[in-house]
Amino acid sequence: MDKKIIFSGMQPTSLPHLGNYLGAIKNWVKEQENYNCLFCVVDMHSLTVRQEPAVLRKNSRDLVLLYIACGLDPVKNIIYYQSHVPAHAELAWILNCYTYMGELNRMTQFKDKSQKFENNINVGLFEYPVLMAADILLFQTDLVPVGEDQRQHLELSRDIAIRFNNIYGDVFKVPEPYISQVGSKIMGLADPTKKMSKSDTDNENNTIFLLDDPKRIASKIKRAVTDSDNEIRYTAEKPGIKNLIDIYMTITGKSVAEAEKEFSGMGYGTFKEIIAEAVVEEVSKIQEKYLELSKNKDYIDNIIKDNTEKANYLASKTLNKVKKKIGFAAK
Asked: Which has the closest alpha carbon to 189: 171, 175, 173, 202?
């Protein structure tokens, strides 16, 4: 345990998109040598929106496959289902009793989602940040990769940990945010002013999913919004162009100067073709590995079993300590 611990997870409400990969997973692959990492399929969180059971099960397994296909090592890391570790739910209930209504009322994501899902404003949606705090604190996490949309939730996790520690002593490690400076925010192709999102159903060309057909990927990039002056510059004043260059730089590792030099004097059509080729090449490698893994059921079943055991072992250490501190009777 000489390395710091990173915890992160994704909901299996749909499969990961290019923004998830370039903004998160690709960075996780780089960091897995430097940290002890847990990558969770947060299926419990997904229940705040009604799910089709068969689809949820398939998406959850596919997410495990895609984690590995993207380069996450299931031996070096712990890749597991949240619902397979009961301590998540147990600790969430305990932490509910150390979280104030006013804190949850201030969560902007609850307000946003309440407007979007006004026919299903459930208690789980309201308490979502407490379960997220339990996810993080359960493993004595040092660092949490978060985007700006989750920073408020992480701050609440820190507040809960500090409050609990002030009452009972040194129980939880207080987590810090880990925000990558490269490819941390990939925007939508049809609306480059908003982050690429798996829940965006208004425009099917806005989001590239990792299992999209390569021809479909190229088509989406060719339809990406740019502007009318046909000049390729990396600037906030040209969000469509900037976003495509961000995608290209994150895939190739090139700098802004190198990318601008490469695209200097080029028309938008050729520019988009080069971006599309880079994306298709990157995603095709993931798809090939995914198909290979999907044919090896026993291998994936063993990974899930082994990693579940590891996650339960680590989670039980923290949960048992918490139970003792708050006065629950020993078994």
From this structure: 202
